[in-house]
Write a structure and sequence with these properties.
The structure holds 2 protein chains of 2 kinds. Chain A has 4 helices and 11 strands; from the N terminus they run βαββαβββαβαββββ. By secondary structure, chain A is of the alpha+beta class. A 5-stranded antiparallel β-sheet of chain A has the order 1-2-3-5-6. A 5-stranded mixed β-sheet of chain A has the order 7-9-10-11-8. By secondary structure, chain B is of the alpha/beta class. Chain B contains 13 helices and 15 strands. In chain B, strands 5, 6, 7, 8, 9, 10, 11, 14 and 15 form a 9-stranded mixed β-sheet that branches. In chain B, strands 2-3-1-4 form a 4-stranded antiparallel β-sheet, with helices on one face. The longest helix of chain B is centred in the C-terminal third of the chain and has 19 residues. Classes of the chains: A alpha+beta, B alpha/beta. β4 of chain A pairs antiparallel with β7 of chain B.
Chain lengths: 151, 316
């Protein structure tokens, strides 16, 4: 795994995006970038130097939790990030019905028209079910395959 | 249940001591263990989870007041229902056999500690440790096979574990490398690969594969793993060595090997299950008396699978 721990300036840029879209103001953890787009957050208490030394002697596969993907200029939160940051998310939340929840958990897009565009957090009652992408005629589903409920 | 091999039968009789106990072991071995789950306290409280599951019509029992996260699902469910519920998909619980929760209860990792989980996949114990640490501190979780690492990673994500670094290495080799970095751990779990005699209720095919040569081979590998890991403990650091098997060659003999080679003390463990003492005599071999402090969990004593757990402290 290529490990890049974001510096404070890079982290600030991510938090700005999160604040603008979802109202998230604080990420009190390190943010690690893997590849061009994927971000992970970690609450480990090793320094950047210690992580680097560890990566030189061992095959590090993962650090922390998959948190978000950068999509062009936007940011898409993972389902587990929506749980972790639940108390801070206060913007662009879309409430769905029970029937829609069943479809969503199977990994299907929700067929409904939208005026707005961009990523929204999907909520069913008190549960946050990840992020969807609003387009003209549907809400795109990004639930990972291994998390989908099979028929 | 498959037919027991005569040598396996004889060994279990020797371990269990009396005929009545052995008959109980045989009887319970024919049935599947109860369905048990562990509430993932990183995402939901036990009270909230219990009330959600009961609202679905599930009958839930919390057998230990001091560990409310441990739950027995007493209702008869459809096949696969435990893994299909929204609460499982969202990571609110982990399906984990009761006895398999005991090694981490014995290790008791605390927030802020540095913990090594040497044989971590599929992640039941890593996620349990992360929850007990409240996502604070660091767990280095290692396994040596990519397919198993993928399952571990998936479980860590689902449970929202943020304080874990996943490494893919041979366990002994990783310990040697960590020693070169002079990295020392507060707590270590070696939940070693084993002959799985304790799992015959949920996986009776184990009996078909059982043979004494495999046990001897595993014992040699387990000694290497335990020895390499033990050297990474801080002074007064603690290691739990566990297996899901009954064979003393894979259990007490491994701990005895540590005690004879290091300044190691086998500590008493307080578990919420009925345990038998570790054996100190096995087939003309005498183990250190301290090893009686280890815990043997037999299926017939608690209606669980079988497990062996020893907690060893590094003294200077």
């Amino acid at each position: 795994m290529e490990i890049k721990v974001l510096n404070s300036k890079e982290k600030h840029r991510i938090i700005e995006k999160l604040k603008e879209r979802f109202g998230i103001k604080s990420i009190p953890y390190i943010i690690v970038q893997s590849g061009k787009e994927r971000l992970r957050i970690a609450s480990i208490n090793l320094s950047t130097d210690e992580i680097k030394k560890l990566s030189q002697i061992a095959n590090i596969e993962l650090i922390g939790l998959y948190f978000a993907t950068l999509v062009n200029d936007e940011i898409r939160l993972s389902i587990d990030a929506t749980h972790l940051l639940k108390s801070q998310i206060n913007k662009n939340i879309l409430e769905i019905s029970e029937k829609e929840k069943e479809e969503w958990l199977k990994g299907r897009d929700l067929q409904k028209g939208n005026v707005e565009r961009g990523f929204v957090v999907i909520r069913y009652k008190e549960d946050l079910l990840g992020t969807g992408k609003l387009s003209e005629e549907k809400i795109g589903n990004f639930l990972p395959k291994e998390r989908r409920v099979k028929d | 249940m498959y037919e027991l091999k005569p040598l396996f039968e004889q060994r279990m009789k020797n371990l269990l001591g009396d005929k009545e106990n052995y008959e109980k072991f045989l009887e319970i071995a024919k049935s599947e263990p109860p369905r048990t789950i562990r509430c993932n306290t990183l995402k939901i409280s036990p009270e909230e989870l219990k009330s959600r599951l009961e609202a679905k019509g599930w009958k839930i029992r919390q057998p230990f007041s001091e560990y409310p996260e441990v739950m027995i699902v007493e209702s008869v469910l459809q096949p696969g229902e435990l893994g299909k519920s929204i609460e499982h998909v969202l990571g609110y619980y982990y399906v984990q056999e009761l006895s398999s929760m005991m090694p981490i209860i014995a290790l008791a990792p605390k927030p802020g500690e540095l913990v090594l989980d040497l044989c971590a996949a599929p992640g039941s114990k890593t996620t349990q440790a992360s929850a007990l640490m409240n996502n604070q501190g660091t767990i280095i979780a290692n396994d040596n096979k990519l397919d198993r690492i993928q399952i571990l990673a998936s479980n860590l994500e689902r449970c929202g574990c943020m304080n874990v670094i996943v490494i893919r290495n041979d366990g002994v080799q990783l310990c040697e490398r960590l020693a070169r970095l002079n990295m020392k751990f507060d707590k270590i779990l070696v939940d070693a690969p084993c002959s799985a005699e304790g799992n015959i209720r949920s996986n009776p095919k184990t009996l078909l594969m059982w043979n004494i040569k495999m046990i001897e081979k595993l014992s040699r590998m387990q000694k290497k793993l335990a020895l390499s890991a033990f050297q990474l403990l801080k002074e007064d650091g603690e290691m739990v060595y566990s297996t899901c098997t009954h064979a003393p060659e894979e259990n007490e003999a491994v701990v005895d090997f540590l005690v004879r080679n290091f300044n190691a003390k086998v500590e008493k463990i307080n578990l919420p299950l009925k345990c038998s003492h570790g054996v100190t005599n096995w087939q003309n071999e005498k183990f250190d008396e301290q090893i009686s402090s280890a815990c043997r969990i037999y299926p017939q004593d608690n209606n669980t699978e079988g497990f062996f757990i020893a907690k060893i402290k590094r003294c200077e």
